Amino acid sequence: MIFVTGGAGFIGSNFVLDWLGQSDEPLVNFDKLTYAGNLHNLAALAGDPRHQFVRGDIGDGAHVLALLRQHRPRAILHFAAESHVDRSIHGPDAFITTNINGTFSLLEAARAHWAELDGAGRAAFRFLHVSTDEVYGTLGPDAAPFCESTAYAPNSPYSASKAASDHLVRSYHHTYGLPTLTTNCSNNYGPFHFPEKLIPLVIANALAGKPLPIYGDGRQVRDWLYVSDHCAAIRRVLAAGRPGEVYNVGGWNEMANVDVVRALCAILDRLAPKAGASYLAQLTYVADRPGHDRRYAIDAGKIERELGWRPAETFDSGILKTVQWYLDNQAWVADVQSGAYSNWVEQNYAGRGVAA
Ligand code: NAD
Ligand code: DAU
Questions:
Q1: Most Cβ neighbours (<10 Å): which of 179, 237, 263, 308?
Q2: Claim: this prediction has a pTM higher than 0.90
């Protein structure tokens, strides 16, 4: 079985659903259920014995180690993190606590578990760390995309905390021989994306008749990847990646923010037309994000050459599916926005400790 951290968040829940859609190998899903964790994402797995959910904090090393000893997973897939750049600007503390100290605690638990395995178990074990392209900093307009040897230059508290976690993972391989794998991925989009991030925020605001906020001049560039392609890349790295290696994952799809928002408006104009006006009329330029990175772009050549992975979705196909998902799941967005699901979690988990 495998042990997943952060499997109730955006990418983690997509990963869990995809994993159990293509394999019968069970998993433990260990998640603190912060504001970003949502068990409704996993409703399709209700009653499925292959999915065991445990609420907990990766910073609680004793809890993690007890679970590792109980379940003896062959791999840990580490998604849990504070993930929103704007929140890291307003309040970096949680980012240091979870992304740095939490990853450190998890690595210590993993190392203790790994040391207790027999020879074959130790050789087969993997610690896969899910990280971001933001650790590489920002690119000029004509600079070559980030590759695995690009120097780290993180610019936000979020990316600095992820960079620190990447370095810790690297050191546990180099020093202790822990069989680690690291993936550095570009911007994801798709179902269950929390509506504080650009794409789901714009869809939700458009439908609610609210402004569509564009930071600065809107010409900042991101490399967008449909989330199920990221999940497939992670499965491929887990299956065939070489311990100690880093794999960059991206969509070969650079777009300026304002063009992403225009594309969303065009799809919404078709699928959910408003009488007499385009959603474009809601587009609003607002003050820029402090320290805003201008451009990210990933060279995903290594994972293609060595492991045969390439994205299956184009931006056109992925974004259409995404908008349709949000139109079909407006109750999910309303729940997240109203805080109803966090109330539900309190109601369901208060006094229970561990949920299964
Ligand atoms: P998210 O914020 O949607 O989900 C994070 C999950 O981690 C939530 O379920 C949350 O409850 C859980 N969590 C947070 N702190 C925890 C703790 N201390 N202990 C246990 N669980 C905790 O994030 P996401 O967008 O799904 O990102 C997942 C991972 O992928 C992160 O490590 C992120 O850095 C990385 N990443 C994200 C993107 C992207 O575009 N979203 C791109 C590349 C890499
Ligand atoms: O590159 C990978 C990273 O992508 C991940 O590591 C992060 O976890 C993930 O949140 C994402 O970070 P970004 O900062 O790129 O994503 P976000 O959706 O917050 O913003 C995308 C771009 O859109 C960015 O240039 C800022 C801009 N933006 C964002 C918001 C929320 C706006 O112009 N307006 C907005 O209201």
A1: 237
A2: yes
What CATH number is given to the structural domain containing 20? 3.40.50.720
Q: What domain range is 125 assigned to? A: 2-192+224-252+292-314
163 part of a folded domain: yes
Q: Is residue 165 part of a domain?
A: yes
| Residue 354 lies inside a defined structural domain of this protein | no
What is the secondary structure of 119-148 as a DSSP string? HHHHHH-EEEEEEEGGGG----TTSPPB-T
102-112, pLDDT tens digit by residue?
Answer: 999 999 999 99
**pLDDT per position as a tens digit, 295-314:** 999 999 999 999 999 999 99
Q: Over the range 155-168, which residues count as b (16 or more CB within 10 Å of their CB) and which as e?
A: bbbbbbbbbbbbeb
> Each residue of 196-242: pLDDT tens digit?
999 999 999 999 999 999 999 999 999 999 999 999 999 999 999 99
Q: Which atom of ligand 2 is nearest to the CA of 215?
A: 33
Percent of the chain with pLDDT over 90: 94
Within 6 A (CB) of ligand 1 lie 5-6, 8-12, 31-34, 36-37, 57-59, 79-81, 83, 98, 102, 130, 132, 162, 185, 187-188, 194
Choose the residue to mutate in 84, 85, 136, 249 for probing ligand 2, maximizing ligand atoms within 8 Å of C-beta. Answer: 85
Phi and psi of 323, rounded to 5°? -60, -40
| Count of domains observed in the chain | 1
Three-state DSSP state, 219: coil
